[in-house]
Amino acid sequence: MTPTPDFWGQLFVFVLASFIGLGVIRRVSRLLHTPLMSITNAISAIAVVGSIIVTGADYPRPIRILGAIALFASMTNIVSGFLITDRMLKMFKTDTRPGEGGSGGGHS
Amino acid sequence: MTHGLVQLAYIIATGLFVFALHWMNTPATARKGVYAGVAGMTIAVLATWSEPEVVHHLWIVLALAAGVLVGVPLSRVPLTAVPQRTALSHAFGGLAAGLVGTAKYYLWLGEGPENLTPFRMIAIIVEIILGFLTFTGSLMAAGKLQEVKFIPQRPVTYPLQNVANLGLLGVAAAAGVALVINPTAPWAAFAFPVIIVLALLFGVLLIIPIGGADMPTVIAILNAYAGLSAVAMGFVLDNKLLITAGALDGSSGLILAVIMCKAMNRSFTNVLFGAFGQVQQVKAGGEEKAYKAESIEGAGQVLEQSNLVVVIPGYGMAVAQAQHKVRELYDQLKKRGITVKFAIHPVAGRMPGHMNVLLAEADIPYTDLVEMDEINPDMPQADVALVVGANDVVNPAARTEKSSPIYGMPIIDADRARTVFAIKRSKNPGFAGIDNELYFSDKTWMLFGDAKNVIGELVKQLSGGSGLH
Is 0.95 exceeded by the ipTM? Predict the structure, then answer.
């Protein structure tokens, strides 16, 4: 690993990604703000990438233990975040279930 | 895998994450977004795992397996518990960032002090402060939402609270600056844990003064913090995928926080400082006002004769788990050819979009869920406004009462409907502790009781004898 990473490049990426994020998120349907929050939770669990390196590299044991806890926390967010987002999104329907509630009349 | 291939995988993952969020712009494509997100995450994990640096695999497998074991049950919580699950996941995100930052610092302190450049030290300090304060702050928020016994629900305030909190953060920042200047000093290994403890403490103190009505804003802010801590981790590890994905999460939290703020008429600086500004409780004068109560039969008859019924749900609907009964009422009214719409205030409930998810769970078509700004012009045409467990979001004092703590907050114009029925559990004032003059209006009739029972009775009334003639 080089001692001098490209700070300005990183900052550049950060600023551009933030602008893309603001542009994309602004268009998200207000109906979906709760699922939006759970999917961005799952995506920000990208900390998994850092945790894998810290856990799996040839580092001293205490350091790897910290990594493993972080990896566990990130994986929990990935799994629960994506699953609950999908579970919620499945519920958003345009029309009521056919045949539900008996009675044929009254659907406008 | 070579370095180049890993970077390529990261670029693909970033693209998939952007698409995942893009597809959330309408419910029709939103599920595609989840698949894109899962694909991006899988690619990112596999690419990282294949890096030559990664030589021990057992712990990775165990940690991932443990994550699955805990993650799956967490995704099955009832939808009324989604706010606390979300807060809990912000806590996990903050914890992961804080721990990786700590691990990296001690690793470099021991094995490569030349890596601790000033820029990287700044990133590490930001990462651990944001990470650990998000960890305890989100745990506190989750505890408040879950109504855990030893965490006070009501806002806890004390003199000089803001000064004390900011002072604490200032001390942590000062210690951080000292570390940036001198990362390998003999005292550095001890100063670092001090910053961690201060950040953990600050997170707790940040959430203690927050009441339930402010939770949607606070959860959005914690979301942004969790994202930014991932960005800081990206700076520390020189990993652009972490920076982009964290930035997406951060901007999402920021936008949601701004929307929540506007919906409560709170300033943006107020948000940046962690929603410190607790509303001052203004005691209304001692004058007694009288509610007018209505019977289920009477309310049923009025509902039957309506053309347009607007239901205004609030947190009380979630507490009473009344959404399925609301759906039955919706069916009964629809059967009679009555138009039923749901008016959704942005801060109704305990997190952004909370009401929409609960109503969608009850199989109410999302086309009938209408935002505040779109429903308000139609409110004068509404025959009935049915308020289910909402309070401050329909309080006309927000329009007129300059001394009211909610003055200026946009509200749903329930009071402009021809008749208002308000379901209320008790005669006590709402969460913000403010009297709601809507309840004393000439056209308002109160239906006292648990929201689920009251609506259940209404459904019984409508499906019973009177509905058949």
Answer: no
**Residue linked to tokens 């942590």:** B172
Residue B20 burial by Cβ neighbours in a 10 Å radius (0-12, 13-18, 19+): buried
Q: Are strands B308-313 and B419-424 parallel, antiparallel or unpaired?
A: unpaired
Interchain CB contacts (distance < 8 Å): A and B = 396
Cross-sheet strand order for the sheet of B419-424 = B369-371, B339-344, B308-313, B384-388, B419-424, B444-448
CB of A37 within 8 A of CB of B138? no
Question: Which residue's structure tokens are 């509610």?
Answer: B291
Nearest CB to A52: which of B60, B252, B339? B60
pLDDT in tens, B205-224: 888 887 777 788 889 999 99
Contacts of A28 in chain B (CB under 8 A): 21, 24-25
| 108 residues of chain A, pLDDT tens digit each | 444 678 889 999 999 999 999 999 999 998 999 999 999 999 999 999 999 999 999 999 999 999 999 999 999 999 999 999 999 999 998 875 544 443 333 333
SS (HEC) of B400-447: HCCCCCCCCCCCCCHHHCCEEEEEECCCCCCCCCCCCHHHHCCCEEEE
Residues of B taking part in catalysis: 392
Query: A53, B90: Cβ pair inside 8 Å?
Result: no
Task: Indicate the pTM of the whole model.
Answer: 0.88
Amino acid sitting at position B402: K
Whether residues A80 and B353 touch (CB distance < 8 A) is answered with no
